[in-house]
TrEMBL record:
GO biological process, one term: nucleoside metabolic process
GO molecular function, one term: catalytic activity
Annotated signal sequence range: 1-29
Organism lineage: Bacteria, Pseudomonadati, Pseudomonadota, Alphaproteobacteria, Rhodospirillales
Identification of the protein by name: Purine nucleoside permease
Length: 343
């Protein structure tokens, strides 16, 4: 008995650290379990701070979901990720295709976030052609088209009146994204009647344009979003964007922006694109009115810019939050995929 007790006394000190280590590993694993993200909101820029000053694309989202959250820095991303207790996360990715998509990829690859079942809302401001949209409107993308993948030449070097763009073979898999029609239908069903803000300055600015669409009050709509690193402008470039959209078989071009197709590509390669949404609010027309040149519209005199920016960024978050809150509140129905419309 004395020998057995002696052997036990020798073995116990060796076993205790192993037991503590094993227990500690389990606790740490629980503490570091990845965040199950239900909705990820991707904005492109903020003006100043995330709260308390002039709002950019992120501030209204931040104040709604993450005002009390702790930011999580991500290596390779331009800005940290914020998450709430319900699985709603978001970040400011940066402007332009490379900037935004590289940030998105860094976040997607960070093991602290489980985005395998997440819905993505790519959210920001944009331009719109006056024949199809208005200042302050909020628009869900049906298609995303990359404006830049092809060949271009100066108008004087081609046939008079002909297009100066030709698609290039090899880009077919990532120049065009048809976003999930059921998801778009849900977005419109849940958000079409969202009350939208407007401003006196925006109302006055719209009257410079003769098009009926340009004079409309803000509304929630759908259409093709055109992604281009070049801030294209003027009636000629607008016509070319519509030409490209139709050439690729997409809907009418209604929104010009700089990130959505690129961000969608990196999401698609890791998780598919069936849970991706692009949500944009129009803060400018993609061309001047008939009394001004394109250069005059690009470099307006003081007091001649379009109004409605503050109202538009608030409209975007109001519309997007309706979709976000519905998904989170009905997660059991949305976790495995988009429910059939009407359910």
């Amino acid at each position: 008995m004395r020998n057995a007790a002696r052997r036990l006394a020798l073995v116990l000190p060796l076993c205790l650290p192993l037991a503590v280590t094993a227990f500690g590993s389990g606790a740490n694993a629980a503490e570091t379990a990845p965040i199950k993200v239900k909705v990820f909101v991707a904005s492109m820029f903020e003006i100043g701070k995330n709260t308390g000053d002039r709002a950019g694309e992120f501030q209204h989202w931040y104040e709604r979901y993450w005002k009390t959250s702790e930011p999580t820095p991500v290596k390779g991303a331009l800005n940290p990720v914020h998450c709430d207790a319900d699985g709603v996360c978001g970040s400011v990715l940066g402007m332009g295709k490379v900037n935004s998509s590289s940030s998105m990829q860094a976040i997607l690859l960070d093991p602290r976030f489980d985005l395998s079942q997440a819905y993505f809302i790519i959210s920001g401001v944009a331009g719109t052609p006056p024949a199809r949209g208005t200042i302050g409107e909020v628009n869900w993308a049906t298609w995303l088209v990359d404006y830049d993948l092809g060949h271009r030449w100066a108008p004087e070097e081609g046939e008079p009146g002909a297009s100066t763009f030709m698609p290039r073979k090899g880009y077919e898999a990532y120049r065009l994204f048809h976003l999930n029609p059921d998801l778009v239908a849900w977005a419109m069903r849940l958000t079409a009647d969202t009350p939208l803000k407007d401003s006196d300055a925006a109302r006055a600015y719209r009257q410079r344009y003769p098009q009926e669409a340009a004079r409309r009050a803000p509304f929630v709509g759908t259409g093709t979003h055109m992604t281009g690193d070049t801030f294209f402008h003027g009636p000629g470039m607008s016509e070319q964007a519509q030409y490209i959209a139709k050439l690729y078989g997409a809907d009418d071009y209604v929104i010009t922006e700089m990130e959505a197709a690129a961000v969608t590509l990196v999401i698609k390669r890791l998780h598919g694109d069936q849970r991706v949404m692009s949500l944009r609010g129009a803060v400018n027309y993609d061309q001047g009115n008939p009394t001004e040149t394109t250069l005059q519209h690009l470099d307006p005199a003081p007091g001649q810019t379009a109004g409605g920016f503050a109202e538009t960024v608030e409209n975007i978050a109001s519309v997007g939050a309706r979709m976000t809150d519905h998904i989170v509140a009905h997660w059991a129905d949305w976790r495995e995929g988009v429910p059939a419309p009407g359910n």
